[in-house]
Design goal:
Layout lengths: L2 H18 L3 E3 L7 E6 L5 E5 L3 E5 L7 E2 L10 E6 L5 E5 L7 E5 L7 E5 L7 E6 L5 E5 L8 E4 L6 E3 L21 E4 L3 E5 L6 E5 L7 E4 L9 E8 L5 E7 L10 E4 L7 E2 L10 E4 L7 E5 L2 E5 L6 E4 L5 E4 L5 E4 L5 E3 L9
Antiparallel strand pairs: 1-28, 2-3, 3-4, 4-5, 6-7, 7-8, 8-9, 10-11, 11-12, 12-13, 14-15, 15-16, 16-17, 18-19, 19-20, 20-21, 22-23, 23-24, 24-25, 26-27, 27-28
Length: 345
């Protein structure tokens, strides 16, 4: 090899390095499947997963410590919402009483069981919060309706009975792949996505009292297909991602975007590289969207064109600003994301 070629390859290597190497893997101390992640700041984040696992860092991920939830060793914590370094909610999935919500206010030293599902037909997939006191949780459909829970004090959860809500289709449900099948924005708006016979987005502008629904062009028809995750960076601009988890390398119809608050949806003109289980927003109000899945991660500044970032197998992603992002995956994988620059599209 000539010196000129060697120098060229050297610079090519370092030109490509930021795309791959800056996603820094951190030692989680566990080998379980992690599917929940909630970033609070550049130093504080919480993660959750199988076998009742909840993890917390307060030093930017230099160390992650397991915080035990008593009696939850057999539960699968698919969603976690952290408020600060001491306060977090965690949701476990499953039929009947496997669907539960716990809360800690002392960094995981103790936990309060706030909700246990008593409906054998219900299966809670995800929850989201407007603020530390106001949250909403979503179940798969039961008898043509989507059961919803709300809290208005951060302490008690009650069944929400909407004034108006379109009926669920037969076998229409949500996906608990990352705890992001439901999302909120501002003080009142909430959206959730579905899969199976349709890939639809339900929207409420008033804390879940009244709902509308919109079709999306994301792939659907099979039980493994549909919308897996939603993210909004304003009341108007949002992204839905998903696909077919049984065919993770298939990129067609895996992402759609809206510019009118979810009333209409269009397919991305250049989709992610395959099925994506989670999408996050790097910073408000003009941050980039990052979607992750079992065959890698992609970035889009406006939801229309997606650019491959890496081939890491990941389940979920969360941001607390442009310089505070983490993603989680199988076998205890936790990665810290690099700072993301401004949109370039």
């Amino acid at each position: 090899m000539t010196r000129k070629c060697a120098v060229s390859l050297y610079f090519l290597y370092f030109a490509l390095l930021p795309v791959w190497a800056q996603w820094q893997q951190q030692a989680s101390g566990t080998d379980v499947q992690l599917r929940g992640i909630s970033a609070v700041s550049a130093r504080v984040a919480w993660a959750s997963g199988a076998k009742g696992t909840v993890l917390r860092t307060v030093d930017g991920g230099e160390s992650w410590k397991k915080v035990n939830v008593p009696g939850a060793e057999a539960l699968d914590f698919r969603d976690i919402q952290a408020i600060d370094e001491n306060t977090a909610f965690v949701l476990s999935i499953g039929p009947g009483d496997q669907s539960r919500i716990y809360k800690t206010i002392n960094g995981g030293k103790s936990w309060e069981l706030q909700f246990t599902n008593k409906d054998p037909k219900a299966f809670y997939d995800c929850f989201a919060f407007w603020d530390k006191k106001h949250g909403i949780a979503l179940s798969d459909s039961v008898d043509g309706k989507f059961p919803l829970l709300v809290t208005n004090d951060g302490i008690s959860w009650t069944q929400l009975v909407p004034k108006q809500m379109p009926a669920a289709l037969p076998n229409e449900g949500a996906f608990a792949a990352s705890g992001t099948c439901i999302t909120t924005y501002g003080k009142n708006d909430v959206w959730f996505g579905t899969g199976g016979p349709a890939a639809r987005v339900f929207h409420s502008p008033d804390h879940g009292v009244n709902w509308t629904v919109a079709e999306t062009p994301i792939v659907h028809g099979e039980a493994s297909q549909g919308i897996f995750s939603l993210a909004f960076r304003s009341r108007s601009d949002g992204v839905a991602v998903g696909g077919d988890y049984k065919q993770p390398a298939t990129p067609e119809k895996t992402a759609a975007f809206t510019e009118d608050g979810g009333r209409t949806w269009k397919l991305a003109t250049h989709p992610p590289s395959g099925y994506r289980s989670c999408v996050g927003v790097s910073a408000y109000p003009n941050g980039s969207f990052i979607a992750v899945g079992s065959n890698g991660a992609d970035r889009s500044d406006y939801g229309k064109q997606w650019r491959e970032q890496n081939h890491l197998e990941l389940n979920a992603i969360s941001f607390a600003g442009p310089d505070a992002g983490w993603a989680v995956g199988p076998q205890g994988r936790i990665v810290r994301l690099p700072p993301l620059g401004p949109p370039t599209e």
